[in-house]
Amino acid sequence: MTSEQNAAPAAEQSAAGPRPHRLTYAAALTALEGLALAIGGIWILVLGITGKPDDRSQAVTGGITLVVLALLPLLAARGLLARRGWSRGPAVITQIMALPVAYNLLRADSAAIPAGIALAVVAVAALVLLVSPATTQALGIRGPGRGQDTGRSAGRPEARPGKR
User: Fold this and answer.
1) Residues 151/88/71/95 CA torsion (nearest 10 deg)
2) What is the reported pLDDT for 159?
């Protein structure tokens, strides 16, 4: 690659301005959830292989499933840091999926209650950050009806009041 090709992404980034803090925080919270899933999956997998679980195949399958599921928030966090518009969808889905898990942890009569509280706080905070106008603008996401192809530019006549 030439120095001109390397300079193009840097110029694009600086032209868009600095990354909003809300976007950075949303990416960090999403990555934190992905890391927690990966660590939990590896923990279950190791215990399933080295320990004496009730059902070894179920423990291994559960561990592998959690590690694979961790990829969604980790990739979404990377996309958020890179300001990719596609990344907000998977990040929002991750937060929405975390809320029922947090609810179930809160209903437990064990040490899982603090984990449920932490997960609920992280999920709600990340959702708020992901839907904030600063994040939406930084990702280049337009709301409905704000695209380039609106009624007038598509060749459709403008509606006149009083005439049908």
Assistant:
1) -120
2) 54
